[in-house]
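Chapter review: from sequence to fold.
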Amino acid sequence: MASIILAINAGSSSVKISVYEVERRGQSPEQLVETQVAGLTAPPALLSYERRGEKIKDEKLDDGSLSQQDAFSQMLHRLTDDDGLPQISRKNDITVACHRVVHGGDYEDAQLITSETLHHIQTLTDLAPLHNASALAIISSCIKQLPHAINIAYFDSSFHSTIPDHIRTYPIDPAIAKQNNLRKYGFHGISYAFITRSVAAYLHKDPSETNLIALHLGSGASACAIKNGRSFDSSMGLTPLAGLPGATRSGDIDPSLVFHFTHDAGKPSPSSTREMHISTAEEILNKQSGWKALTGTTDFGKIASSEDPSCRLTMDIFVDRIVGFVGSYYVKLDGRVDALVFAGGIGEKSALLRCKVTEKCRSLGLAIDAARNNKPAAKGIVVDVGKEGARHRTLLCRTDEQVTYRQNYTVHQSTDPVL
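The token string follows.
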């Protein structure tokens, strides 16, 4: 009997679902549909729907402000109402739902969602209130609307479980740190796992013999040192706020700054809800900072193409912070680096950013090829944009987190009798 899998990625302003079919146990899933509702925080939201790579519809949802649960319900209705998708004629046809969860705490692998694991994920919400809440909302909706489906959680933090103790430990009271689970976790791990496998294959190396400095650069941005195919360090820490600045995140700052910024730093934010408890400080640093605070826009394409002094300053800040992590990780990897890898929406699309970062790292033996960089090859998951003869490769990787859910499901299906 065929299995229908939903790979669900719930963000703060969007919900994305990829639908796959598995004909037989252990077979690689085939993608049927990809659908997304974007713009949940800036209505009207837009629903896009593609079946087997063919765009079927783009539709504005004029329902005011939609929640993640609302968006999921609308997408589920489109799937069961699609005459061109006979595999899902009713909700009970869906057998598995795979969920991206940002913070998994000490979970090192994907987890079957039971009442116990769901409770554990809920306890982590205080560590990542702005990130886990949306995933939990969709998981709860799935349990309610798809009672016959199996739910599996994939964690952005799991890939970083190999970070050594001396790197992940904060120099604070160890008893309090242990009691409250206060340490570096790292995020974007689903993307970094994909990057590691893909780049190793491209270089014809075993992942266990591959060392990379990887940059996942998007509205949320991070860097990762990958040693022998495993995470050795990550720019993100206890939460995704640490490290590089992003569209609305500050990245690393002096921890005392926010208390000088506002006297209300420790008070609950007006955005807090019963399910999501955040302080004013968390609200400011996660949602009111980054390049939006510096330029008034979250569109990095506009920032990169603008001559406005605030945009040029923002670009210089971003490049400076990225280069700082590249240099640090180069030393931590003892200079044994197979490639510097750019990924994520900005990493893939901004030739100017790649050029500026690589130019600043020229003393490390990195160099970019202008022609390759300005017009990367259209085909291929991994593309070389580096200059021939450079000491180290400079690559672009078109990361696909949905593929990771699909591949991992096949592994779990073949090893877990529950599936």
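Two observations follow directly from the output. The longest helix spans residues 309-332. Residues 414-419 have pLDDT under 50 and may be disordered.
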